[in-house]
Amino acid sequence: MEIHQLTKSFPPEEKYSMTDQIRRSSRSVCANLVEAYKRRRYRSYFISKLNDSETENAETQVWLEFALACGYLSKEKYDELSGRNNEVAKLILYMLNNPDKFR
To answer: Would you give the DSSP letter of residue 70?
Structure first.
């Protein structure tokens, strides 16, 4: 949600590129995690949706890097969001490496 709020300050010309993309990927991380967890009894489905979540999280990181490079985020805000993104990545990786703990 913080990413969504921050993107409101991005330039209008970014509306259909960076703004939409970073909003979509950051929301997708959460949506895929929920879907994975709801179907956790199906191991292969659980892992598949976790992989999707991991991929979307990585995409979000790339968009954060672009936003920093374009001057849309301060270095401090980038560091904060990137750190939080990295923590999410660690949690997803833990789930991927230990799927049976979530059954």
So the answer is: T
CB burial of 70-94 (b: ≥16 within 10 Å; e: otherwise) equals eebbeeeebeebbeebeebbeebee
Instruction: Considering the domain delimited by 14-102, tell me its CATH architecture.
Output: Up-down Bundle (1.20)
Radius of gyration of the chain from its Cα atoms, rounded to whole angstroms: 15
Entry pTM: 0.93
Query: Which residue's entry shows tokens 């967890």?
Result: 37
Judged against a pLDDT cut of 90, whether residue 16 lies above it is answered with no
Reference 54, options 90, 13, 9, 16; nearest CA is 90
Domain limits, the chain: 14-102
Each residue's pLDDT tens digit, 32-78? 999 999 999 999 999 999 999 999 999 999 999 999 999 999 999 99
Instruction: Give the tokens for residue 23.
Output: 């909003």
